[in-house]
Design goal:
alpha/beta; Leucine-rich Repeat Variant; Rossmann fold; 2 domains; nine-stranded mixed beta sheet; 44% helix
Amino acid sequence: MITREYINDLKAKNNGELNSFINEQKDNSSIQFILENLGRLPLDFDGHCLIPFLMNKHDNIRYLTVKNIGKLCNDKYLELILKVAKEDQSSFVRREAISTIGRMKSEKAIPFLIEMLKGTDPKVVLQVIRALLVFKSNSIVQEELKKLANHSNEMIQYVIQKQFYTKKSIKYLDKNPVINSEFMKNVVVYGDVLETLKYVPDESINLTFTSPPYYNARDYSIYPSYKEYILFLAAVFKEIYRVTKEGRFFILNTSPVIIPRVSRQHSSKRYPIPFDIHYYLIKMGWEFIDDIIWVKPEASVKNRIAGFSQHRKPLAYKPNQVTEYVMVYRKKTDKLLDWNIRQYDWEIIKKSKVQGEYETTNVWRIDPTFDKVHSAVFPIELCSRIVKFYSYVGDLVFDPFAGSGTLGRAALNLERYFFLTEKEEKYIEKIKHEINKETLFINKKIYFLDILKFKKLMEGNPHDFNG
């Protein structure tokens, strides 16, 4: 039986014994085991004993063969590997061949790699780009790579844009730390959200979580047309993009909505809000990250299946809607999440870690909340999860359609600050009532401002900051 220890022992003796042993193998399972466990190869290893395996019918054996030849970083195998990169039937074998060519760092490969940029497999082209970036100081290579800035594949566009057209960023600093740290913390603005957002500084919000008003399904949200409703939401979310810090999150809770039929001679109408607004979000620069499905108990939703349950006639099936979408977006950036995390000191990072059990899937089973004042209240559990998972202690979280202010309560409970806007006076009173209960045991001041006071404040009149 071949073992890893035996292979290592052969490598330690001399190159000839290992070569002979490899050449003796005829069984594919044994060949694959040897190739997987060759590990680091001796500097004088003769890779020619591996070459016959490049003709093996099994993709994984050809892949492992190329990978092991690549460990030698010797361009005497360049022509052989170029042939594999061009002719092999497997995409992942071709990609590994390109990777091997890149590790050889041989300028002789440049013309071939440039030719490979014209390929139709985007995964192979991306690997070719990586190999060519070894020679990015070469003006010809730069010119050829820059031609891909408008490539049809979005990932190729992204890599080229980041490599050649993105300015190197300096360490993150708040554009206006005074306004962000003082005049928007624990503030509720009574007024139109678009009007309010005019006075909010760029990149002043760490996290937005909201559930916009339903389209003409509630008395407080009547719009002339569905198109105008979607365009209104798009206008709000574009402003939220502006005020969100680079690389931070916007999380949107929506669901398709049913407009009841006007009579028995007409059908009801169902609008796919989350799917229709997604197009606008991507277009304005938000990057889609995740979809979370919020599942409610069936007893809590309107019964749409009753008629079908009686007659069971095909075409008439309408399931009870027990789910809503919680769509997670991130403000576009070329930086990884680690960059955002490094903006916090270690004590804040430790304090913000999610403790105890947590949901590991994208299906969240949370009971809805019912209220006499507001007909569509955020459950506190939903808000708390979002705040814990997508912000840090001391962050500023925003809800442009605050309703009864549940996000503000969750923020206070989790040592974050909130900024809320709400245009309905009855809901402002509800927020005051609910948040005042939260602050009985928390030494924090809550500020309720109308738009005029908020405008004066943001224009530089801090004396108006008196709630």
